[in-house]
Amino acid sequence: MAFGIEADRILINGRIWRGREEGISEALAVWQGKVLATGSTADMLSLKGPATEVIDLEGRFATPGLIDNHLHLIATGIAMGFVDATPAAAPTVAALTRAIAERAASTPKGGWVRARGYDQVKLDTGRHPTREDLDRAAPDHPVYLTRACGHVSIANSRALELAGISEATPVPDGGVIGITDGKLNGLLAENAQNLVKAVMPPATTEELIDGIERAGRHLLSFGITSCMDAAVGHVAGFSEIQAYEMAKLSGRLPVRVWLTLLGDPGVSIVEDAWRAGLLSG
Questions:
Q1: Is the pLDDT of residue 70 over 70?
Q2: Number of structural domains, the chain?
Q3: Is the CA virtual torsion 145, 176, 185, 129 positive or negative?
């Protein structure tokens, strides 16, 4: 096989998936970031030059980079820095509150402690954690614990106080404020979560870039090389656009990303993007 071109990289001795119609190949050659040829190991090695990198897959499977067509990259990356409240990390309420207390101990007094990932069905109690549980863990910090689904959260007394939420607070349309025996139990669902989110300090540009990079590297660990961020703006508004641009320019955007702008009434960044010249039509 002679192309008159020396491959930049050659993968050999593998099971390389090329697509439903093309099937499996043993080897593959890459030139300038594109597939040059596929075939047998012997055929591909004929494209080897002095500077060619050869990767022996040793029988392992290889596939083109995967694409996730709906996720929230910035939100995911930022949440990865929260207290891990998943069942694997915190299977009991005691373990969960202990992890929150440990984070509070390293957080300046009054600073927010965020946690995410619990599932009450998988906790030892079989119930949602309560305001009192979080108060015992971190009485001097506002605490906000979000369920794995993202649609339900638990706030401690300090967080509820900062948000101005009391038993008399009107329940927002499409939301739930949990009350047990006439007292707040800390549970906030759907739109009621926005009452607390509104008083949290906004993420800085550097925190947004950290989130982009952290989540991007996490995607790469699963072979996901491209994604669509499905609601750009829902964490920090239009500043997320700037964060993406800065991450790209500084080499901190590990994956290809298509941006879908948040367009919900009241929080839309579409008009800001239009004024900035990022949209046409």
A1: yes
A2: 3
A3: negative
